[in-house]
Specification:
Radius of gyration: 23 Å
Shape: globular
Distance between the termini: 63 Å
Strand content: under 5%
Length: 618
Amino acid sequence: MHALPILIGALCVIAIAYRYYSAFLAAKVLTLSDLAACPSVTQYDGHNFYPTNKYVLFGHHFAAISGAGPLIGPVLAAQFGFLPGLLWLLIGVTIGGAVQDFMILVGSVRRGGKSLAEIAFTEISPVSGLVAGIAILFIVVIAIAGLGLVVVNALAESPWGTFTVAVTIPLALFMGFYMYRFRKGRIGEASAIGVVVLLAAVWAGGRLAESPWAEHFTLSKHALIVWMAIYGFVASVLPVWMLLCPRDYLSSYLKIGTIGFLVIGVLIVNPNLEMPALTPFVDGGGPILKGKVFPFVFITIACGAISGFHALIASGTTPKMIKKESDCRMIGYGAMLMEGVVGVTALVAATSLFPGDYFAINTAQATPEQRVKYEAMVASHEHTSFDLSPVEIDRLEAESGEKNLRGRTGGAVTLAIGIAKIFDAIPGFSGLMKYWYHFAIMFEALFILTTIDTGTRVGRFLLGEFLGRRVHPKFAKHDWLPGSLVTTALICLGWGALIWEGSISTIWPMFGIANQLLAAVALCVATTILVNTGKGRYAWTTVVPLAFVATTTLTAGYMSIRDNFLAMTRVESTATQGWINTILTILLMSAAVVVLVDSARKWAKHGRDSRRASVAGN
């Protein structure tokens, strides 16, 4: 099947959802009003609370929420075929993910920019607030580690990508001072300068990679982890206008521009989707994901359809910078729809590869045992309609400049090859696959890294609020520098240690489960807000996605423990990681169930009280 009708249909679904469903949510469910003062104005401090232009803030928010999930998740889920991932991306993002982000953003804005845990504390109960707060802290660290690991794998030994990403940091500092100090309000001028310098950095990175200077930007994985932790610490402590917001705004140009170019490329090239709609692996036993399509496709795609991590951004940095309530529709609902577009285009790029090439890249082949298993898998499908013999892998290696594409698991290399293959097929752009491939690798790293800085800042807010209740009240004050330094350092050490010791196979499953459990918690909070504010008749807008996400994720968590994590504990080399995954998954599932039950009790009590009041009134 060709990609053109799929992409056009997906874009139409997303456009209709924004035009009509988000308008319904804004007008009827949330009743947005620009007459209400936002915390960026009432609590202005020039550091964390800062009224921001909605287009700049859209760039920050989109850059912060769009991490590895919408890029890597659909690529890994392509193992099941293109249809399961496509359906979940479109259905999930329009009635689940975008609704969650929008609801939580407005809820936080109307509650002084409070975090998700604090809102749960006041809206549901102190028990839910405590449980949610502890669970969220674990989830934040796991999520950042999962996202950061993809950056490390993409940039390791890549001077081109490392140089380009490094340039964005001083460039963002310059843009911050330009927009908010030197030429206050001149966003257009700063944007033009930033885009020009960014494109120049992309071009210069290619030249640098072939020069003697390349060795200075060729970093090992451990070196990248250290530098990334230092950057996350600095970006979290500095005022948002100085580095975080302008860097995310700048990165959003490259993100949206590249995705836009990829959409145009798909429309022009109209590649054939070589992967079938459904593969034999929908029944389980795949080389990438061992489980069946249900429920594992839903926790694998994660952020592209619905993501609990987004609720942390929507109740973290973004609500503190919203200038007026009407901006929440474009930023909350619209940015998530854009992430859905990213997920669909990533799925198209991955499934445009021949199945044999896709699985040759994504199946581990580092050891003799792994190579034997891979060859046995290929042989078992040799005389079937689903042939897994490599078709173009040798040509792709030669033209991309990579010495070996086989066994490059994790999804990042697969996506880069898929993007490069589409760009190389555009008339007038052929013969440049080497450059397209390395550009795609750099794009992926930059795409994900912007989530690291915002995630660290959100983690700092959450840990500060937690310590403020139980250690010293000053920790809860976001402008108290000693508290900011301590909490930021602890968060950076946490996710840095996980990346240092982990791998994509040990971190990603935990990330998927934790992320979707957090989405269930966020939808519980959103539903409770509707019930408490007299909007219970619209609770179906959050209860429907909540019921689906909670069911699929709890099922996936149980099956992961039973079939994967406990099996790891019986192998000496993976026993420690297996026990960590098992214990954390049980704790996170238990926390989600506590919040679910506590929320249901709150809704039931509110219903009983409303009926009593109605009877008394009559």
